[in-house]
Design a protein that fits this description.
Length: about 200
C-alpha cells in the first residue's frame, strides 16, 4: 500500500492508523500548492480531487477521504481492534464520531488557515469550534478515548485536527480533558513515529 500525504495535514490520521496496524506500506509526500508528488508526478493524475489523503491499495484501488481510509485499514487488522466489527451498533457510533470530527471540527479549522479570510469569519469559526470542543470535552468525561478506554481510528483523526490549534492560535485551555487526550495520544509509539516521519518531531 502507498499513502499520499502532506506533512501535518489530515493525512496524518491514516498515517497513524497504518503504523498502529502493523501493515506494510510506503508513503509519498505531496506539495498541495504545486500538486506534485515528491517523485515528480502530477498528483491530480493520481487523485483528481487534488488533496490528501489518498491510499493506493495492494489490489490497485485508489481510496480517498480519511474516514473511509481509516475504516478500511482497521478492517484489514480486526485483531488490533482499531474499529468495532462492521454491522455492530458500536461501529455505527464510530462512524458517527468520524462524521462529527470531519464536518464539525475539521472543516471549522479550514478558514483559520486562509490568509484571505476576514476576522469576522475567523471569529465565527472560532466560536463554532469552542462549541464543538465543549461537546468533545463532555464525550471524554470518565474515559481515555472518544468511544471508551480503547484507542480507535476516531482518536487518530481527532488528534490530527486538534493538533492544528497551536498553528492557528486557537486556545484549548478551557478544555482540560481535550488537552489530556492530546498528550495521551501523542505518547503512543505509532503517533511519535508518524510525527517523526512527517518531519514534525526531531
Amino acid at each position: 500500500m502507498k499513502l499520499y500525504f502532506s506533512p501535518g495535514a489530515c493525512s496524518m490520521s491514516p498515517h497513524i492508523v497504518l503504523l498502529e496496524s502493523g501493515l506494510p506500506f510506503t508513503t509519498e509526500s505531496v506539495d498541495l500548492r504545486s500538486k506534485q508528488t515528491a517523485g515528480g508526478a502530477d498528483y491530480t493524475a493520481i487523485n483528481p480531487k487534488g488533496y490528501v489523503p489518498a491510499l493506493q491499495t495492494d489490489e490497485g484501488m485508489l481510496l480517498t477521504e480519511g474516514p473511509a481510509i481509516v475504516q478500511y485499514l482497521a478492517d484489514l487488522v480486526p485483531e488490533k481492534q482499531l474499529a468495532p466489527p462492521p454491522g455492530t451498533p458500536e461501529r455505527y457510533q464510530l462512524m458517527a464520531m468520524l462524521n462529527f470530527i470531519g464536518t464539525e471540527v475539521h472543516k471549522n479549522f479550514s478558514p483559520l488557515f486562509r490568509p484571505d479570510a476576514s476576522e469576522d469569519v475567523k471569529n465565527w469559526v472560532r466560536a463554532n469550534l469552542k462549541q464543538r470542543y465543549a461537546q468533545v470535552e463532555r464525550m471524554l468525561e470518565g474515559q481515555d478515548y472518544l468511544t471508551g478506554n480503547r484507542f480507535t481510528v476516531a482518536d487518530a483523526y481527532l488528534f490530527t485536527v486538534t493538533s492544528w490549534a497551536s498553528f492557528v492560535q486557537f486556545d484549548l485551555s478551557a478544555f482540560p480533558r481535550v488537552l489530556a487526550f492530546q498528550k495521551r495520544v501523542a505518547s503512543r509509539p505509532a503517533v511519535q513515529q508518524a510525527l517523526r516521519d512527517e518531519g514534525l518531531l526531531n
